[in-house]
TrEMBL record:
Residues 14-35 are annotated as: Disordered. The keyword Protease applies. It comes from the Bacteria. It comes from Microvirga subterranea. This is ATP-dependent Zn protease. One of its GO terms (biological process) is protein catabolic process.
Amino acid sequence: MGIRIRTLSSTSTVDDFEVEEDQDGSPDLPAPSGHQSLLAQARSRQRLSLRELLAKPLLRQALEPDLLRRLKRGDSTLALVIAAPSPAWVAPLSEALKDLALQGLQIITPSERLSRPEEQIYRAEEAARALAKGVTIAGVAADPNRELSQVLLAAADATVIVPAPDAALVEQAIRAFSRKGKPVTLLTRDLAGLDWPDYCAAFRPGSTRPAIAARLARAAGARTGVMFVEDAPPLETLTGYGEARTWAEEIVREVEDRRAGHAQVAVLESCLLFGPPGTGKTSIAKALSGKLQLQLVMTSVADWFGASGGHLGAVVKEQQRFFATLRASRPCVAFIDEIDALPSRGSLAGSQHSDFWAPVITGMLLGIDTLRQTCPDVVLIAATNHLDRVDPALRRPGRFDRLIEIAPPDVEGLIGILRAHLNGELADVDLAHVAQLLLGRVGADVVQVVSSARRRARLAGRALTLDYLLAEASPPDPRSLAELKACAIHEAGHAVVAVALGRTLQGVSLQLAGASGGMTRMAHPGFIPTRAVIEDNVVIGLAGRAADVVLGAGASGGAVGDLALATRELSALHASYGLGDRLLHWGNLDDDGALVRVDSGFAHRIEDDLQRLMNRAITLVTQHKAAVLSVAKALVAQRVLSGVQVQALMEAYPPSAAGIADIPASAAETDCADPLDGNFGEITPPG
């Protein structure tokens, strides 16, 4: 049985490619032994042609026409820097560059030891000698700023960024490589995160076109951290994200303008999202990726440790692999989760662990710098629950241009999240009360409430109703009625005094949250901390204790958090802001509380302010006694009230002219032991 072998001439056309016979620049293979078959030799030759089919066309696309002509003519000395998609692409691109250029081109290989002085000197002399002789040189590296000599970088006439091959180029390569099977159509996701070895493994001699395409798609699907998000919520449906969603929509418009050719190529703005756990930082990255139809490349410091065993060199290599994946996957959305797992260098001063973390932190800084310089089409996003723990060098513009907080959503945001996860169910039902019950909780809590309500309805064999949502949003309260009334009076004091002082009240609740028996939420009063604003904050914080004194059973230890907040606010007023009787700046805000413990004079000053502002809070509660009681009674009945409802009750029960001299020490000294049993009737707050 004969073997038919098809050979190519030295320059033959295969579909859209000129396929040249491999020259001495091809990767060296062992010489075939005498007993190897001609078929094995032919297959080896065919495998080497992948450089012709992928690397060389990719390089041609990246080189400007003028540079390509100058390389081919060899009539002028050039110094080039070629940024490869990944370290694995360096060798094939170097060989392709030799094929494209006139004989005499010198390739400068990358070095991972440039941190060593002797290596820096050697590499600098290597580039300088070649340029002095009039030789055209090209440094090819995945991370030129880190792996090539500064002499070469400074002398470079051009820096050429070579992207990963797109679907059209790979389709052409498959057509040229194999004549078997129908032409294939590839999607961007079929190539997501693939590296040069993946292409070498997929382009096997004798394979059909569909088989090659299937191997590529399988390899892309196996890439950890690289994905196309199928179930991402539509960006336009996200609610409660505020500035974060606005930023994402701006990125979408900018990318779409680029695709339409209406905008110049510039670095896309990066963003560091921060806020409590469960606020949806990952969700917005997925939604943005889905909206742009770009692959999402995710990582975390924990992933680097998990994939490397935790040794320093291996962790750094995993970090470098992440940035190499981004270069190979561009354009894409990059998401670094829990970035505060990299400690701030300030917190490592004098620590025995600083030698370990310094290279990792530096690697992150340099990796982001290089990424943003060489890959302007990568959208870089990071997330943290603790912004203060992130190194200041990471937070600065140029690395992360925007710092955006995603706070727990307000009532409207909660309603939107509920609607999104109800998927059209209960479309005609008012969800405002459910949202009020969830006020202060995050999006992840809302998702859990909806899931649990559905499960409860399914187990009961019934359709989902509002009652199931309410039952999950406000589970049975283990507190006694007396405890509920005491908490209601306390929270009503906060809420009523806040409105009386002109604050915008978002809501008040008796919902249990950890050690807290209730919560009063109001809008931020502004960003200028005047003495009046700070003292009003303290009065509102002390108003719960004031209500306990005036209308309840007296002061209790339940107000410990309120007292701590009031002490911190007043300490900052005197020690940091210069708003007391001295201008001296005693320390940072975090240090102010310590002054109370170590400086008795400072502690007396704070105590005097606390007593004065407590009297003011008692006066306000006494003047608004009827309103406080009405709000407390409504809270016991409904568990939660909106700011509008509290405002309506205050209008129904206007303040009296009572003064501090009219205030009893506690409710125990009055004729009414339980003020909530007073003559208020059945209170139904409007709205």
